[in-house]
Amino acid sequence: MPVSGSELVKLLPKRKPCRDCGFPTCFAFAMKLASGGASVDKCPYLDEETKAKIIDLLAPPIRLVTIGSGENKLEIGNEEVVYRHEKTYYHPPGIGLLISDKEADDKIDEKIRKIKELQFPWIGLMLKANLLAPYFESGDKDRFLALVRKVYQSTDVPMILISEDMDVLFSARDLCGDRNPLLYPITKENIEKAIPKIKEKLSPIGIRGDNLESLVPLTMKLKDTGIEDLVLDPSSKDVMEGIRDQTFIRRAAIKQGFRPLGYPTIAFPCFIAKDGLREAVAGSAFISKFTSIVVFSDFDQYSLLPTLIQRLNIYTDPRFPIGVDEKCYEVLEPNEHSPVLVTSNWALTYFLVSAAVEATRIPAYVCVKDSEGLGVLTAWAAGKFDGESVGAFIKKCGIADHVKHRKLIIPGKVARIKGALEDALNLEWEIIVGPKETTGLAKFLPDLAKKLRE
Ligand code: SF4
């Protein structure tokens, strides 16, 4: 639950407004603190204990935890709402692939290849799985360390190191500590022994409780020792229990502001489902229900793609349609005689238009005007695709330097902007009204391209 400025001001020194924080009053400073626009350090009169209390109150209800490093690092947690329609979700769950050290070498190589190669371009994004999870199952420490070394050297994806044996777990951590792996599992049985080893080189920690309640003393103990990047596993036995546990954790953290459960979570469909289809369904349920990392025993393109699209759909901000960047896109290596089409930047519109152009095999420029992700007609109705603004965009996008002709194709649905657009372009461009539907480009574009060449 977000803390308010009027609650925070009770903790401030309330000196005669000294303004040393840069704000006219303590209350103004408190309001800014609550909105995240100022740092508590700005007030020099706070003792350390009060500062820590304020920082704790300002912390997000679910801690942001980073696994891995560099470009591929995975950020999870930091969510603010239970249901997406209340605002949005911010950090999509990581999809992980388990690699047991009991698996044959060629199977291990195949899984490493999958995590690198199974990537899907999708409306301007690249969808892919995020993590590899080396799993100590063989009882042979050297074999496990060789597996961790192989994953470390052949990929740069974040890792989850899984070992019940703490000596093996921390030896593996020492091999790849700079990659900031998630260490799993820390339990009530091994926590005392693990804490000094964890503190040698901090890395995110996966805590496994016997059940939901038993997670609480573990997170409190770790937090007291300064270990705060935690990921929770309530050891759900099946999907129903998993959904219940994940929902309970999310509601406790966000609705009740219960800090000991205010951490991202992990689930293992690979351990609780007995066959590929059930595992895929379990994974899908966990992705829908608040889980921050979901680990599968295996996947191929046919099971991974639907999972990635489901994740994309849930974690797309419902307040904004998906848009592509405003610019002139080249389709099929156009030249100075190629047609120029203009459209809005709703991702679906752009991909339908460019796919229709590609299908005609006629190279063209597709100039995409920023319309805040709206389709052409909706954008026109909202005043974001009118003659004046489209004209301004055409002038600044530089298309005039790429083509000799001055013919611009506008979508048939907004034929009414023709006159205003001609005016905005000082009658230097001839405005051609294209088909109302992109399917109409199949005939329209070849005819036009022929005229442009003549
Ligand atoms: Fe109040 Fe501290 Fe700001 Fe002074 S510096 S006005 S005491 S918040």
Nutshell version of this structure?
With 454 residues, the chain is an alpha/beta fold. It has helices at 5-8, 26-34, 48-58, 105-117, 141-154, 166-176, 191-200, 215-224, 239-254, 269-272, 276-288, 301-314, 347-360, 376-381, 387-397, 418-424, 441-453, and strands spanning 65-67, 74-76, 94-100, 119-122, 125-128, 131-135, 160-162, 182-186, 205-208, 230-233, 266-267, 293-296, 327-331, 340-344, 364-369, 407-410, 430-433. The protein has a 4-stranded parallel sheet. A 4-stranded parallel sheet has the order 7-8-9-10, covered by helices on one side. The protein has a 3-stranded mixed sheet with strand order 13-15-14, with helices on both faces.
Walk me through this protein's architecture:
The structure is a single chain. The protein has 454 residues and is of the alpha/beta class. Helices cover 40% and strands 16% of the residues. It is built from 17 helices and 17 strands. It has a 4-stranded parallel beta sheet with strand order 6-3-12-11. It has a 4-stranded parallel beta sheet with strand order 7-8-9-10, with helices on one face. A 3-stranded mixed beta sheet has the order 13-15-14, sandwiched between helices. Helix 5 packs parallel to helix 6. The model has no long low-confidence stretch (mean pLDDT 93). Bound molecules: iron/sulfur cluster. The site of iron/sulfur cluster (SF4) has 13 residues, from helix 2.
